[in-house]
Amino acid sequence: MIVKSRSAVALLSLSLAAFAFTGCSEESNAEGGDDSTAAAGACAPDDVKLVGQVRNESNPYEAAWLEGGDAFAKSVGLSQERLTYDGDSTKQQEQISQLLAGDTDCLVMNILPNGDSDTPPIVEQAQEAGAFLVTQWNKPADLNVTDYSQWLSHITYDGVTSGQQIGDALADAIGGSGGIIALQGILDTGAAKDRYAGLEASLAEHPDVKLLDQQTANFSRAEALEVTKTLLTKHGDDIKGIWAANDDMALGALEALKAAGKEGKVAVVGIDAVPDALTAIQDGAMTATVSSDGPWQGGIGLAIGYCVATGELSVDDITDRAWFAEQFLIQQDNVADFVSPTVDESEYACDNVFSRSQGPIS
Amino acid sequence: MSVNVESAPTPSPSAAAPALEVRGLVKHYPGVKALDGVDLVVRPHEVLGLAGENGAGKSTLLKALVGLVRPDAGEIWVRGEKVRLKSVVDAADHGIGMVFQEQSLVPNLTAAENIVLGAEGAGVRRGVYRWDTMRRLAQEQLDKIGSHIDPLARTDTLSFADRQMVEIAKVLRIEERTSHPPVIILDEPTSVLESKEIETLFTQVRRLREFASVIFVSHRLDEVLDVCDRVSVLRGGQSVGEVATAGALPAELHRMMIGSTGADDHYHDTAIRRPEQEPEPLLSVRGLAGKTFRDVSFDVRPGEILGIVGVHGSGREDVCRALFGAEPTSAGEALLDGRKLNLSDTRSACAAGIGYVPAERKIEGMVGPMSVADNMTLAKQKARCVGPLVSPRKQASLVDRWIDRLSIRTPQRSTAIQRLSGGNQQKVVLARWLVADDVRLLLLDHPTRGLDIGARSEVYRLMRELANNGVATVLLADSLEEAIGMSDRIVVMSDGRMTAEVGCPSGNKPTPLDLVKEMV
Amino acid sequence: MSTPVITKPGTDAAVKGGPTLSQRLTLFMPLIALVALLAALTIAEPDFLTQRSLTAVVRTSAPLVVLAAGATLVVLCGGIDLSIAALASLSSVLFALWLPDLGGLTTPVVIAVAGLIGALQGIGHVLLRIPSFIMTLGGMSIFSAVALVISDAGPVRVTDRDATKWLTLYVAGYVPMAFAVAVLVITLIWLALRLTPLQSYLTSTGYSEASARLAGAPVDLVKVLAFTVSGACAGLASIMLVSRNFSGSPTMADNLLLPAVAAIVVGGTAITGGHGSLWRSLVGALVITLLRVGLPIVGVPSAYEQILYGAIIVVAVALTLDRSKVLIIK
Amino acid sequence: MTSPAEDVDVVAARPRPRRGVSLRDAGPPIALVVVFLVFSVLSPEFRTLGNVQNIMDTASVLAVVTCGITFVLLMGSIDLSAPGIMGAAAIAVALLVANNRNDHDLGLAGVLVAVLLAAALGCLSGLALVLLKVPSFMTTLGVSAVGLGVATLMFNGVQPNISDDLLASLAVDRLLGFSYLTWLAAACVLVGYLIQRYSRLGRYAYAIGGAEEVLSLSGVKVAPYKVAIFTLAGAFYGLAGVMVTSQLSAGLVQAGKGYDFAAITAAVVGGTLLTGGRGGVLHSAVGVLLVTVLTNGLVQIGVSPYWQGGVQGLIVVVAVAAAVLPQRRRNQVVK
After folding, report:
1. Which of A194-198, B208-212, B413-417, D221-225 bottoms out in mean pLDDT, i.e. has the lowest?
2. What residue of C is the nearest CA neighbor of B451?
């Protein structure tokens, strides 16, 4: 028996080794394998190593983000190394520090920090290692990009505005008065905080709209389903509208409404413009969402880093290093324009990378 | 093999040939020659008694007969055909089944399931249980032995006696694997039964004789003579003879078993004359009561060996554990040197200089994978420490000294204890209490269980030595003979109460029968 | 009293001793697995075998090592501690909250409190006779709940970084302080066991609790002690995490639970208790860390990464588990 | 359980008092009723029919998962593979029925395939257990990771949304006030109970948890049954994954997140012992309801969501303590 199991082990481990190789060989060409210590801003285009890190590939928005990164890398004849950390802050830090322990002279990182509090250590390590860093979405308000030479840029969408825009859209949809419930995102993220602030602002302008209840569903479709179900039974028909801090939760809420047979009777709004949400808007199941362009975000971060690394762009020339990207409120009338987001190559041109900037983060 | 349930068992055509025959069976264990050329003949429809001291090789022989042990040499013949038994199932296919001493039932299944386990036959169709069929199959078996228990009762809710009935019923299933009358082995079936249950068991055995051959193993010679047609005696792994039970006396059987006359000298009674005026009692138990015993009072003096005897359920084991703080007490007290013992945990008992050797050596006595040295010093850590720290040198010399003194056979002191033979394991467990030279009271629960004769006589000698050096001992003996042979005084317990206290000085020992009267 | 001497030899003869070759092999199997994995990663990505990246690996592994080492004690005496990760998260929050008031004292205080919480679990386990699995499963959810509430479900920034700066330094320029501390902790615990009867008590409890009790070993005390150390280690681990993230968060260490248990078992410690050591867990933790950060860094796509991770830990355990020491495999 | 045929003296000679057992069996249902009444008094919303429906709907998935894990626990093994297996099944079914990623439209067949995939994964942990002799704790941990990997592979960056009417309707349409999913879960519990009571597999699962060695002594080969049990459990997880997909009408890799410990908790609260051999599907079902009612009730009376996990943890400890205390013995081994 032991003998049998031993041999079984041997067999398994062999096949594993083989597996490991196939698994790795795909990527091994991604590494520029020479240790030429090029000073910052003077890397040969071929030496640049592009890395994009998001939570996981099992979420449409972030998967699209990585696709965008690949697209840009392809456009400059390189390839992007994909990293994912399963929404696990610890694992993200571990990956970053491991990554920065390698050859960092021409390393360009386009990072989606798990939460505000994860940004500082990432920035400091990048600064120390001299890698070119672009972060998106999450950063503590009191952390200034300009204090670091290697932290080229922090890009985000104006959560307050988007939160308010969909808030107003929701208010109009329910005829300016009635009860609504709010589904919050991961409370630790700037995005969640700003968007909720936007909702409050909108509520201030619509006194007749009453916020019946607010719970966090952690940006998760499944959690949103459960929370909404419970809130529906708790408040019943008082609920006229549902404000969700992102589309995944909005879609979860839609399912809950479907199960309760209230589909179409309750207005639902979200943010991010993920494909499912857009179709939902087309069918009139959802009222509104706000565009955020995953593919573009995946590309632009790398583009900025690439331009600086290759010296085509100097950090000092960047006017606003922490800036809002342009976004649109999407409703049934204009949804058609956004169903297939396209990124124009020209937007990645080094003199044009800030074309979507809406000005500095206030 | 026929799975025909209804047909009543028919006597086999080859009734003339022995149902089972064993020729020159040999089995070695590390350090022990368990079987040394055993011969055995079981005729159809007879009850053959198998007698022998512990370690005479009975259990090994039985295991060989049901395929749990592969003999190194010798042959097993079933109804005139030579067989190699590779497993219990294999043995069953040849019509040999055994009721194990430690019961082999699944506690959380019903009696019916246990009876048909592994051979459900019609009870299961395409993996689906048919409880009614199941119940019927089981009922048939139970009827054979005239037991009235409910087949669908969960096994662990049955009394021990009923569980044994279930075991017998389970074994009888092998009839369906062979057309011949089966051979049923009963290993120490009575050791844990009360007299009433024993009677029912005996009627079962006689009933079995109708359609099967039976090998009946028991310590209690009177029982053996009572229920068996013939008795075959083993000693030191060899068959030393046969006795036709008609008119035979326990004494002569016993003589064959121990190979000499009288019980006493076998137990090395060094016949030391104790001082006339009795010393003050070391341990005085006063009105001790617990779950299974009440109102127990006795004294043990320094250098005295007190035997406690009683059938299963007499509560003597629990008294022993209670004194060591391993069993809760509800009333009474125990004084050591007039100082009240704290019976709430084993720690304080150890601290007070009490040592306990449990019956279940492998489960409760030793830590199998741990080294001989660590096992030996487990209880008396101080003995191997300098201040708070362990001194390997001190431990080594201490352990080596005791390995030598008790002549423990072990490759190194670092060998895992589970790799030693039973006798040496027991000596290590005993040494555990001696290493610190501070033990004053030893509680020995079946200290010689499962040891071969040599190991046992060494344990006896060690007990004597300790007694002569003033250690008081409470002994739960393996057999009445052992109790009588070893003890200076014997307390008899029955159903949780003390029924008698018998003086047992060397030269003037009571007979087993004297005690049995008090036990039941 | 003088001790009895037995002169007559017994009938038992000696048995041959000494471990077999396969046993010797399984003894070093964890190390072999570690080296093999490192080799595989290097083949896949030559740059991986540099002093800098190896330093990064050990620096990264430090919290996991400490967590695993602590829990190993509980596993050694036959239990399991599922609460370590949640307790570490809670501790990280406590640290961040208390730092402003307690200053330099915070580190010892947090470790002490964590140890105390661990002890409480141990006491509940031995007094109420609740299986450790359940006890710590309950503890896990309770600690996370408390952490969420006191931190209001968000991270707590640590502004005064000097308090944890020392953990980010390097010993002799190369060895990360955090890892050095981890190794130091293991060494201390190991010595405390080796030099005192504790080792015997722990091992006997793990192998055969009944025997240990009937030999008068302080089984309950040993268990409580194990849980206490396990808790304290969780506390220390949390401080290492804080020193890395400059913040404490109620979910910071949660994802380290299963890796920590995996590290223990991959190290070859029997999950049934008795057999094993803290050093094995150290090696196991390094293996797991290599899998966690190594695979993605050498460019294994995340999907394959998970599949490999799953398959490798199973195989690793199959190789490192010394079956002669473990009777039933459930 | 007690049998008329037992004669008196036998009853007297019973080895163990029955009290502990009966308490373990009766305790959880009583607790369930009590908890329900308490919340009904505290919160008017709680006692509404709508909320009862909501509770049952919420419980349905957990109930199915717990069904599967119960068999593993009965054997005395443990199973942490639910998240991975559920994820894989969820994506698989989403890709096989009518969806937005490809033009498969296998309908029920798709569901079947997904469940089979899950069963295969379960079988994998069983095989690793009996062939490689690796503790189930680790094999299932590994299989969970493998399952997540497989799921991520199939997910491939684009959310599969299902348009299959049957699957979509399961979560929405109602029969006698309860969604079809709830009825499906009820059916699973029933099937589980039948397997446990009337199939050799189920009974042997008990026996393995009770006294594995006796089985082999009786000539039963245990290994195949162990593998079969893990396969069965995998199938249940797979079905649960399908149910999640129909609830969200989309395949999520994280479909099974957190269901491993949740299911173990529920089973244990219901009176299924981790040591194996005791409890069963019905016990676990009660446990599931108990846990779900608690969570829902706490939300209804407005307890912060953060506390809810903690309260559950407390309940588990209390439940087990209540079950074991009546029959604690000196020198008893508790791992």
Report:
1. B208-212
2. C12
Q: Which chains touch C (3 or more CB pairs under 8 A)?
A: A, B, D
Calculate ∠ Cα D184-D59-C154, nearest 5°.
140
Cβ of D157 and A225 within 8 Å?
Answer: no
CB of C217 within 8 Å of a chain B CB? The answer is yes
Q: pTM for this structure?
A: 0.87
Q: What mean pLDDT is reported for chain D?
A: 86
Q: DSSP secondary structure string, A320-362?
A: -SEEEEP--EE-TTTGGGGSS----GGGGSTTTTTTTEEEE--
Q: Burial level of D42, CB count in 10 A (0-12/13-18/19+)?
A: middle
C328 contact B CB<8A? no
**Helix, strand, or coil (residue B214):** strand
Which token pair is C61? 């592994």
Burial level of A284, CB count in 10 A (0-12/13-18/19+)?
exposed
**Residue of C2, C3, C200 with shortest CB distance to B378:** C200
ipTM summary value:
0.85
- Residue B110 CA to residue B99 CA, distance in Å, equals 18
Per-residue pLDDT for D23 more than 80? no
Using an 8 Å CB-CB cutoff, list chain B residues near D5. Answer: 148-150, 153
Question: Rounded distance, CA D49 to CA B380, Å?
Answer: 67
Q: Of D293, D236, D240, whose CA–CA distance to D70 is shortest?
A: D236
- Give B379-388's long-range contacts (Cβ < 8 A, gap of 24+): B379/B350, B379/B355, B379/B432, B379/B433, B379/C215, B379/C216, B379/C217, B380/B432, B380/B433, B380/B435, B380/B436, B380/B438, B381/C197, B381/C200, B382/B436, B383/B435, B383/B436, B384/B435, B384/C197, B385/C196, B385/C197, B388/C196
Cβ-nearest to A230 among D155, D159, D296: D296
Strands B81-83 and B73-78: antiparallel
Contact A142, A305 (CB under 8 A): no
Out of B211-220, C230-239, C300-309, pick the least confident.
Answer: B211-220
Instruction: Nearest by CB to A117, from C43, C47, C245: name it.
Output: C245
Pairs from A262-266 (Cβ < 8 Å, separation ≥ 24): A262/A232, A266/A239, A266/A240, A266/A241, A266/A242
Determine the residue type at D135.
P
Average pLDDT in chain A: 85
**In this structure, what is the dihedral angle of CA atoms B63, B67, B69, B70, given to the nearest 10 degrees?**
140
Tokens read off for C18: 């000494």
Higher pLDDT: B221 or D33? It is: D33
Q: Taking CA atoms, what residue in A is nearest to D256?
A: A222
Q: Indicate whether B517 pLDDT > 60.
A: yes
CA-based nearest residue to C90, from C301, C250, C293: C250
Positive or negative: CA dihedral C205, C209, C211, C214: positive
Give the pair of three-digit tokens for residue A158: 């104006």
Of the candidates B404, B346, B403, which has an alpha carbon nearest to the alpha carbon of residue B379? Answer: B346
As a whole number of angstroms, the distance between CA C70 and CA C82 comes to 12
- For B302-388, strand residue ranges (E) read 305-309, 329-336, 339-340, 354-357, 385-386
Give Cα separations from D225 to A8, A72, D83 (angstroms): 20, 54, 23
Picking from A94, A114, A143 by the largest number of C CB atoms within 10 A of its own CB, the best residue to mutate is: A94
Task: For residue D190, give how far its alpha carbon lies from the nearest alpha carbon of chain A (Å).
Answer: 24
Beta-carbon pairs below 8 A across chains C and D? 160
Q: What spatial distance separates the first Cα and last Cα of chain C, rounded to whole Å? A: 49
Element (H, E) at C304: helix C302-320
Residue A22's pLDDT is what? Answer: 42
Q: Look at residues B412, B478, B446 and name the one whose alpha carbon lies nearest to residue B191.
A: B478
For the cut 80, the answer to whether the pLDDT of residue A34 exceeds it is no
